[in-house]
Specification:
The protein has 304 residues and is an alpha+beta fold. The protein has helices spanning 3-13, 21-25, 44-52, 58-65, 69-99, 110-113, 182-185, 188-197, 201-226; strands at residues 31-36, 132-138, 142-149, 160-169, 235-237, 246-249, 251-253, 264-272, 275-283, 298-299, 302-303. It has a four-stranded antiparallel β-sheet. It has a three-stranded antiparallel β-sheet with strand order 1-3-2. Strands 5-7 form a two-stranded antiparallel ribbon. A hairpin with a 3-residue loop joins strand 2 and strand 3.
């Protein structure tokens, strides 16, 4: 294996590259893992080496190799992070099945993971075994994945159905030169809240990005229910920015098809070095879809 690949493999054996895993673990019993994006994930030889090492399935590799080179690295890193999180979620998935009296012989195991390909659904999310739910987010240098056992009763109430995760870079003073997208992301009430609580322009821009990240995570957690384009203004948040570098986000779902259902969402955010990490999970006693199936697309004009 090339020296670069050996170094990359060693980095995956260490702890998560983000410090937010303990926080996420408290949210629905999810597992959060990250993987760095580097040049080794873009070359044909590097991708083939990952398959040989068991970090990537052959079908995932073929999907990656068909992508433009600029997309390969983030996709491959996302699947590596997903596989890492899946491995760590096995004990929880087994515990959930045992508690429900379900058959556990067909559940995930370290051995079975090597033979599973996590491709993409028609909506663009990761295609996973029915016993778990997962979400992936990535930027140019880092990919992040969240995995949780489905139908696990969470302390907050309800059966966990789907999770969502989003990763955004924290803004710098250079970002203030770019036009704000507040009116595309925030509801009128959210604009009032953000402007009233922001202490300076950079803080206001960071508050905007936190809203963006949390809403993206929420959309991923409800998409399997509604299967449609969701506008940013169909979810309203009141984030407690006074709490410092993390907080839970009270969520108000404004989607008409969710009004008479028991579907609920909890979300939280965390500042981790240069990153904003947002996570969300949806709960319901049923996983029935409530919206029409539509082609995958962007949310609020911004691609997921």
């Amino acid at each position: 294996m090339p020296e670069r690949m050996r170094h990359h493999e060693a980095s995956l054996a260490g702890p998560s590259r983000l410090a937010s895993a303990p926080l996420l673990t408290q949210l629905g019993g999810s597992v959060l893992r990250s993987a760095p994006v580097d040049d080794a994930l873009m070359s044909d030889a590097g991708i083939r080496a990952l398959v040989e090492a068991g970090h990537l399935h052959g079908d995932e590799a073929e999907l990656a190799l068909a992508m433009p080179e600029g997309r390969r690295g983030t996709f491959v890193a996302g699947r590596m992070a997903l596989r890492h999180a899946m491995r760590d979620a096995i004990p929880m998935a087994t515990e959930t099945a045992t508690a429900k009296g379900a058959e556990t012989s067909g559940l995930l195991s370290d051995a079975s993971l090597r033979h599973m390909a996590f491709l993409r659904t028609a909506r663009g999310g990761p295609q996973l075994p029915s016993a778990v739910t997962g979400s992936v987010s990535h930027k140019r240098t880092l990919a992040l994945a969240a995995i949780a056992p489905r139908h696990r009763r969470v302390p907050e109430g309800g059966l966990l159905q789907h999770v969502g995760v989003d990763l955004e870079r924290r803004p710098t003073t250079d970002d203030l030169r770019r036009p704000s997208i507040a009116r595309r992301i925030l509801t009128p009430q959210e604009i009032v809240w953000v402007q009233a609580r922001a202490t300076d322009p950079l803080h206001e821009r960071e508050a905007l990005l936190i809203h963006f990240a949390v809403k993206e995570a929420i959309y991923k957690a409800i998409d399997p229910f509604v299967h449609r384009y969701v506008r940013f203004t169909e979810v309203e948040l009141e984030l407690p920015f006074e709490s410092g570098d993390r907080g839970e986000a009270p969520v108000q779902l404004l989607l008409p098809e969710l009004r008479d259902t028991d579907i609920a969402v909890r979300a939280q955010w965390h500042l981790d070095g240069d990153w904003i990490v947002a996570t969300a999970f949806s709960t319901s006693e049923s996983d029935a879809q409530v919206g029409p199936g539509t082609a995958p697309g962007s949310i609020g004009g911004l691609t997921r």
